[in-house]
Amino acid sequence: MKVIRHPNTGAAPLRAAFVFLGDTIFPTKSVSSTLIRSIRFMHTTSSHYDIVIVGGRPAGSTLAARLGQAGLRVLLLERATLPSRPPASSPAIYAKTMQMLEDIGADVAVYARNTPRFTRWITEYRDAFTLVNRVPHAFGRDYGYAIDRARFDEALWRTAARRPTVTARQNFAVSDLLWDNGRVVGVRGRTPGCPEETFTADLVVGADGRFSLVARKANAREYLRRDNLPTSLLYAYWKNALPYDEGGPVVYAYGGETGVGFLLMDSADGSLAVVIEGQAAKMEPARGQSAEAFYLEKLRAVPQIWRRLANAERLTDVHGMKRVGNLYREPGGPGWALVGDALHQKDPLDGQGIFDAVFTAKTLAQAIVDWKRNGKSWAEALRWYRREVHAETFPMYIETLRRVRRDLYTAHPDWLIRTVGRWLLDDPEMKRRIGLLLVRGLTPDEAAPSPGLVLRALLRGLRQSAGLRPAFS
Ligand SMILES: Cc1cc2nc3c(=O)[nH]c(=O)nc-3n(C[C@H](O)[C@H](O)[C@H](O)COP(=O)(O)OP(=O)(O)OC[C@H]3O[C@@H](n4cnc5c(N)ncnc54)[C@H](O)[C@@H]3O)c2cc1C
């Protein structure tokens, strides 16, 4: 538990004005007028930190936890009250992400509480084929979790807030940056209903997601922006849905109508995340139709999916995102830096956003420690950060965009799907490589099939279709 100390005297007079939930501070609604005056006094007074982080979900919390591990004084500010779901996300995470979370002491038993391990991806394409692909063994695990983001984000938040040098405040919206001589030196913002507060810092980090205020206010340059394949998503969580089969939890993908795909993931507490992603133009409800009605209409139209949902109950509203962005932003400048979606965002088709958020946080933490503790200049540390981020994320970014084009923007003739498409995707070595690519065990270059592999896969498929014993397995 942390106590807020009087900024000038160091005393702790305001303990009664706050409730403490875990290590997070919430202003109480009913406090005496004397205390309110005391709080106002404190609120209008600045405090200085090594780092202020704006945004406290995967990128912000894991960055704060790492900087806390290094003993830096961190203020972590989050607009939302946790646990709550982010505006849009229904993710699956894999071993390499879990490994990075272990580094900071995040407990899988907490962030994946009551969440089943899935070991299979099932892909169906119309009635043309069903593919079963096992999650490959990599980084010590052969399964993933379709996590509940509310639970996951709160667990990471608490992991950061437990660090003695990290102060974590929710329900606080940053509204602007503070500048001095062309350099960012802090933030201003407020808790709703309370006076504005300012905080100064050696560095302000925007971990504030796709629509990053820090990026906007710092004029962060965008580059490698790709808007030519826009997609939109809608999703909700359901309960009492029928299982895919008796073989345990799965991630199930269905493709039918060109340009629209479905993803069903067994998630926490017996729930099922049901996502529809498609070309933006095909995801527009008819005039006067709600997003919810559109979502249900799409699900009802696919018997393979509706059979599981017909007697299920929807647990959440329908959420979504229109025209998901694909871009990078300049990683930082004088007194500021970006991390997670604020830095780099891409289509969620391949489910890489959480990995990238946790990875970029790890890398930025190293850059900051090198700058603050190991004598690197900030410019040098930033250049290193940019290089590392690109080396890890850029090949996957290109691969994801390629996949969006292939899976959602290309009309494949039925005969091609039933033959070449199926033969390639059903080849054991192709399956292994695709699996390792998704869990970040192979780079896109390493996973790409050689001409020899393609030939073998086609021959194998041909022989099988002709009823012959497979020549290769
Ligand atoms: C529909 C959809 C499905 C997805 N599916 C997957 C998937 O399967 N797998 C996967 O890995 N990724 C998935 N992603 C991507 C993933 O959700 C993001 O990459 C991830 O949430 C990024 O984490 P972050 O911490 O950078 O940002 P966010 O999770 O967006 O968090 C940013 C935080 O900053 C806070 N904030 C913003 N502005 C302010 C402010 N001014 N003051 C204070 N706080 C502020 C917000 O309240 C928010 O909590 C999906 C995304 C979408 C849209």
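^ flavin-adenine dinucleotide complex. Residues 54-55, 57-60, 77-80, 86, 88-92, 173-174, 207-209, 213, 233, 235, 321, 324, 340-341, 348, 351-355, 357 surround flavin-adenine dinucleotide (CB under 6 Å). The longest helix spans residues 378-408.
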